[in-house]
Amino acid sequence: MLQLKDVNYQANGGQLSILNSINLTVPKDEPSLIVGRSGSGKTTLLEVISGLTRFTSGTIRWNGKIRNIQHRRWLSGMVFQFPERHFLGLTIGQELKLGHRYIPGNRIQQTLEQVGLSKISLHAPPESLSGGQQRRLAIAVQLLRDPQILLLDEPTAGLDWSMRDEVLTLLTDVSQNRVMLIATHEPELFFPLVHQAWRLEKGTVKRLYKL
Ligand SMILES: Nc1ncnc2c1ncn2[C@@H]1O[C@H](COP(=O)(O)OP(=O)(O)OP(=O)(O)O)[C@@H](O)[C@H]1O
Q1: How far is the CA of 16 from the centre of ligand 1 (A)?
Q2: Residue 171 · residue 182 · CB < 8 Å
Q3: Where is the chain membrane-spanning (predicted)?
């Protein structure tokens, strides 16, 4: 379970308040949603949780223990908005192995099966995949790190309907045994998958849905 207590984040040397006293308890084994308009602070919140951004005050606990920024980097996997823009590997195989000294081939194959990409060639460039497949590859890259906390920023942005369905089905499957938090401005797409959703407005959690 992930717990945020009174988390604040201010930018520009404290001049600009972006997250204001965020309190959240996010359960494991089911996707949860952060809903909010553009500029409401969704990406910032995911970056704070994942340890990519240092918050100003508050506490973040994992399974009851306070976790510092290094712990959270280690615990978390973040799938950025439009992750395909950030692929670095020249091939799908390279992309999957980035940052690892060694990954057994069967582990790569299992992960590709998990995301429904078992038939692709590891020698092909990531750009040869369809939009939905590229999103699934980005999720596979994170799953290979086996994160306890999986954070996804607008995972369906820019996808057509059929590809969105592919990604939505996958998200339910990979939420088992971990916390999954999805930031979106299109909550209606995700409501069939989630039990809990929070609305962020100007950096404040305004409402809690128990669906
Ligand atoms: N380091 C920073 N310095 C100044 N302003 C920042 C900083 N980080 C974020 N902001 C501002 O904080 C606000 C929230 O940004 P954030 O990207 O978290 O919103 P968002 O809800 O994810 O928006 P979108 O859906 O458009 O991605 C924005 O107004 C953004 O410009």
Answers
A1: 11
A2: yes
A3: none
Q: Is the CB of 15 under 6 A from ligand 1?
A: no
Domain count for the chain, please give it: 1
Q: Residue 7 belongs to what domain range?
A: 2-210
Partner residues linked to 166 by β-bridges: none
pLDDT, one tens digit per residue, over 93-147 is 999 999 898 998 899 999 999 999 989 999 999 999 988 899 999 999 999 999 9
The DSSP secondary structure of 61-101, one letter per residue, reads EETTEE--HHHHHHHEEEE-SSGGGG---SSHHHHHHTT-S
Nearest to 124 by CA among 102, 98, 104, 94: 94
Residues 23-26: contacts with CB under 8 Å, at least 24 apart: 23/205, 24/198, 24/205, 25/1, 26/1, 26/2, 26/179, 26/181, 26/196
Report which DSSP code applies to 127.
Answer: G
Pocket test for ligand 1, best of 12, 18, 47, 56 (most atoms within 8 A of CB): 18
Residue 126 Cα distances to 79, 90, 95, 134, 172, angstroms: 16, 7, 8, 7, 24
Q: Are 35 and 185 in contact (CB under 8 A)?
A: yes
Both structure tokens of 35: 């809903």
Q: What is the ipTM of this complex?
A: 0.94
Give the CATH number of the domain where residue 206 resides.
Answer: 3.40.50.300
